[in-house]
Amino acid sequence: MSGLKSLKKRRRVQVIGIAGACIAAILTALWFLPEDSFQYFRSPSEVVAAPPAPNERFRIGGLVEEGSLVRGQGQEIRFAVTDGGALVNVVYSGILPDLFAEGQGIVAQGNYLNGTFEAVEILAKHDETYMPKEVIDALKDQGTYVAPDGAEDTR
C-alpha cells in the first residue's frame, strides 16, 4: 500500500512541476513581446488630461463629433472624437468602414502627435445599437451616455 501512496505523490509532484514550467514559459514569452503588442484604451478626456508619449500606440474611442468630418486630398480624412468632456482631432489616411458616420461610436488605433491623433486603423460600430464597452464606460463617466433605444442601460 505504501508503494501506491508513493506513486500518487510522485505523480502530483510531476504535474505541479509541469504546470510550473508551463507558467514560466508563458511569462517568459510575455516578457519578450514587443512594447507595441499591448495597446491600451483611452477616452478623449484622458488623452487631453495626460497626453501619451508620441511613440506609444493606443486606442481612443468616443463619438464622432457632428460637423467635424473633413475629407482632404486623396484618402485623408479629418474628424474629431469626443466623449462629451473633451475633443481630440483625428487624422486618418485610408478607407473608412461602411458604418462610419458623424455622431456614431468609433474606436481608432494610432499615436498622439502634436495635438492630433494619427490613426492607422478605424473600427466602427457593428449596428445601430453597438458601442464598445470602453466607449460606453467613458461616456458614462462624463455623464453623457444615452442608450440608443432610450431604455435604461443594464450593463
Automatic annotation (TrEMBL):
Gene3D superfamilies: Nucleic acid-binding proteins. Keywords: Cell membrane, Cytochrome c-type biogenesis, Heme, Iron, Membrane, Metal-binding, Signal-anchor, Transmembrane, Transmembrane helix. It comes from the Bacteria. It is found in: Cell membrane; Membrane. It holds the Pfam family CcmE. GO terms for molecular function: heme binding; metal ion binding. Its main location: membrane. Heme binds at residues 126, 130. Residues 34-155 are extracellular. The chain crosses the membrane at residues 12-33. One of its GO terms (biological process) is protein-heme linkage. GO terms for cellular component: plasma membrane. It is a single-pass type II membrane protein. Signal peptide: none annotated. Residues 1-12 are cytoplasmic. Belongs to the CcmE/CycJ family. Heme chaperone required for the biogenesis of c-type cytochromes. Transiently binds heme delivered by CcmC and transfers the heme to apo-cytochromes in a process facilitated by CcmF and CcmH. PANTHER family: CYTOCHROME C-TYPE BIOGENESIS PROTEIN CCME HOMOLOG, MITOCHONDRIAL. This is Cytochrome c-type biogenesis protein CcmE. It comes from Yoonia tamlensis.
